[in-house]
Every structure is written in C-alpha cells, then in structure tokens.
Amino acid sequence: MKRILVAEDNKLILETIAYSLTREGYEVLRAADGKECLKIMKENGADLIITDLYMPCINGHEVISVVRDELKMNTPILVLSAAGAEDNVLKAFDLGADDFMVKPFSLVELTVRVRKLLASKK
Amino acid sequence: MRKPIKFTSVKLIFQTISLIGALSLLIAVSSFAIRPFTALDVAIGTPGKISNHSNQYQSKTNANPEHIAQKQLADAGIQAGGLSDTISDSTTKKSKIDNSFANPITTQKNKITKPRKRNNYLFLRIFGDKNVIQLKTDLIIFGNEHYPPFLRKFHTRVIEKTYSYPVILLFIFLIFIFILNVVLVLLVLYYSNLYKNQKARYIRIFTGMYEEVLTAYLFNEINWAKTLIKLKRIKKPLNRKILTSVLSNFQGNLSGEMDNRIPEIYEKLDLYRDALKLTKSSFYYNKVVGINELTNLYPQGALRIIDGFINDKHYLVRAEAQKSFIRIHASNPFEFLRTLTTPFTRWTQLSIFYLFRLHQLSAPAFIDYLNTENDNVRNFCLRMIIYFQQLENATEIFKLFESKNERTRFLSFRAINDLRLYEGKDLIKSCYSGETKKNRLEIIKALKNIGNTDDFDFLESIIKTSSTTEKTEACRSLYFMNKEGCDRLNFMIQYSDRNIEQYLAHITDPRN
To answer: What is the pTM of this model?
Structure first.
C-alpha cells in the first residue's frame, strides 16, 4: 500500500484529503505543520508528499528544500496552496516540487494527479 | 460538560484578598497612629482618643475648663499660637455660613494656651488644622452656592458628620470598598474566562462533529436523512453559526464536484435565512457577514439583495456588496459602477481589482463608464483603461481635460501618454497654461513620448521661463524625444543659456 504524507494546517482540509485518499486505497500520514512533516519524513518516509505552502513553524517552500537538499530524497512533492501567484509557483518548482495545485481544488483532480505522480516514480 | 473550578484559581483569589486585607489593616493601624484631627477633635468636642483621655482627666481633677483645654492641647502636641491663628481665621470665614459649627471653636479659643509637646509636628506641617477647617468651610460654601435648596441641608449634614467621626472609620470604609471591588473584578475575570473556555470547547467539539458528518455525506457514505439525524442541535443559533463556518471552509477550499453540493446543504438546512436576517440588522458588521455568507454559499440569495447595498451609507457594507457583485455577475462584473453614487474608496478599488484578477474575469470596456458623475468611479475607470491599454474609443478621454476634478485631468493626461494618443497632443498643450503644477509636469512628460519637432518651441519656452522642476522635465522630454531634440538642446546650451548644461547633466546621470 502506497504511503502518502499530507502536510496541511487546516484540519478540515487535512481530514478531507486523508479521507479521500484512504478511500482510494492509500495509507495517509497526517502532519499539521512543516516541522511535523519533516519529522515524519525522517522517521517513516513516504511515497508522496502533499504540502501546503503557508504553514506554522516551517513553510512549504522550506519543506521542499529540506527534503531535496538535506534529506536527499526524490519523493514526489505535490504543492497544494491558495497562494497561486506566479512567483510562488515558480519558486516551488525551482526548489524541486513536482506538481502544483491552487485552492480551491477538486478532490477528483487531486486523486488523479496523485496517481500520476506515483506512477511516474516507478 | 461543566469544567470543575480549579483549586489553584480559588487559592489565588483568597491569597490576593488576604494580602489586600493585611495591607489594609496595616494602613488602618498606621492611619490611627498618625491621626490628624486631634486638635480639631479638641476644638469641636468630637469623641476620640484625646477627648476620652481629657474626660478622664476632667473627672479626676474636677479642674476648670481652661486648664482642661491646656492639658488636651499639650497631649495633642499642638502649638498654641498656630492653633489660635487657625481657629481665628476659620471662625471668621465660617461665621458666614454656620454658627452652630463656629460657636464651639470660638468658645474654646480663649481657653487655649501654649502646649507642652509637638508630637505631630511633621504631619501638621504638611496639612495643618487651618487647611482642614478651610476645606470643610469651602465644601459647605460650595454646596450652598451650587446645590438645589432641598439638598443643601443634607450636604451640610454629611460634611458635619464626616468631620465629627474619627478618620479611621473613613479609612476602614474605603478599604472595605476597595476589597469589594477587587473581589468583584477577580470574580468577573474568573467567570468570563471560564465561560470563554467553555464556549471555545463547545465550538471545537461541534466543529469536529459537523466536519465528520458532512465529510461522510459529501463522500456519499450516508444519506441526507441520516445526516440530519447526526447533525445535533442545529436549531441553536451558535450551532448554526458553527455549521455555516464549516460549510464556508469547505466551499473556500474545495471545487469541482463540491461546487454545487455545499450550497445545496446550506440551502437544505435553511442557513441562508440566518444570513438574510443578518443583512437586515442595524449593525454594519452583521450586514457584512450576511452579504459575505450569501455570496459564498447562496449566490442566488445574494443576487436578490445585493443591489440595495451598493450605495449603502457605511463604506464597509458598500465595499462588501461591490465585491459580492463582482463575484456574482461574472459576465459583467463592473455594471454596478453605473449606479454608484456614493464614494468609491481607494481600498475598495484595490480589493475589487484583486478579486477581478484572482477570478480571472474578462475586463469590460471601461470607457463606457466614463460618463458617470462620480469622480471616484471616473478615476478608477481611467486607471483601468491605462492598465488594460484599452485603446478603443479612447478619444472619449479628451472630454475629461475640462473636468473640474484635478485628479481626473491628471489621469487623463497620463492616459494620453501611456496609450500614446497622438491626436490628443495639441489639446494637452492648449491646457498647459491653465493647469496646476503637477498636471503641467504630466503634460511635459507626455510630450517626451508623443511629441515631435513641432513641440520644440513649446518646450523651449518652458525651459526659458518656468520653474526648476518644469525646466528639468522639459529638458528631459526634449533630450529623450528624438535626435533632433537632443541637437536642439545642445544648440540652446551653446547660443542661449549655459545653465541648461547643468539640467542636462542631471537628466543624463544614470542615478536619476
């Protein structure tokens, strides 16, 4: 079973994404902020990371940067944020994100993108 | 559900009260020790420590009154000269208002002789009996002059009573009131905090519960009938607010298949009625919340009421209604500008522009709204015309050169420059002499981009006659217009004005 780590400070959205992905047959790990996300990543690892950009403690850009540069992991990263301005998107891709979705987002579209990212990893 | 009162909080309250009590006791004891009215007590015969002592002395010796007074004052430690002066002064003033008070003092006056001790010397130096009696006199005079007749007697009696009781009682009373206040404040703080925490806990519990139930419904895990059963206490106003906030959170973050389902739940639960009720409130913030809720969760409801708020007297309500209008009327988002008669603030303009860009709406022809009477709207439209480079029918802007509003004229000149409307060049040149300095500068700047050799004489006349700022700008326009302009400027430096060289050095400096 593929393991997906979701980092999102909005509890409702975190639970909704987790619910949606669990129904699709994935194991979902939850993180309420960037710090928790990195901790889980170091301890358990994951097949895919879905992260918000603006979170307490460590933001999404820093999460991508640490995963890529410090942990040297090539886990696919999907950024999910309401900050869809061009500079945010470009920065995320520059740091090593694989995909970007702007809120409000469709759960169906998210599931499709997750599936595609996991398939590309293979 | 009720949270038990924590022992530590109660302990803290009692510790504070005990501390205040101990302090007040200390103050009471100190005040008793330096009791200031000793001499006055003697003079007016009030009960107190010294008076009791003198009574004992009188009964023991059965001496004459003069001797008793001497003894009392000696015990009190008051200088005879000072007291006699005090009493004689106060008696003179007091005789105007109350003989019943003045008589005992005057009676005693003759009996006072030199005291033996000066125990409260420092205290009396600070306040003095003279000042104490003066204050009493002033208070009574003030009452008699300012209070209605039926209150005067009561006021005088209160003053008399105050001066006849030992000051220690007043201190104790004040301390008691202080402690009572502190206790009340602490209790209010404690219970308000308790209520706030309980409310937050309640909201947290029900938010979690509603999120769970609605998620299950949105993912078709349960049907509507079961959802309704699981949504507990939805008739309570607070629970309805919680439910609305959960739905707003869903609506703000999810799209696609959820776009229709969330408003459907909102409508099924009649939550829109609450929002409509809020829009009818007399408080502006309720109206804002109501409009916002309806726009996000029940657009057809917002559509019906939004026109009534476009010109609302409160700017925040207006702004919210205008933002709502843009969200709802995606095909023609700025149609409200035609009916807008109230001020259109710069902040609202920015918010609307942000929303407009965020939702990637198509820009209408802003030139169509230029004939409005509202200056704010006209200026906003000019900015939008410049931003979106709307050249179609742009000659309509020329009509605004005669506007009474300076800002409108300024933006029109800027539009001529930014849109490169060459046909407007002669018109702006004709406006130059009657314009304000700021607008004149904008005209000169425009000539840099739309001017040609025909404008050299015009710019040269500015360089020769105008102020430094205008001269600098005219030099800049001439220099950067074309090669001929640059040559003309060099010619002027050589044959007419050597000072222009300094302006040229300034405008060609890369730091400027």
So the answer is: 0.65
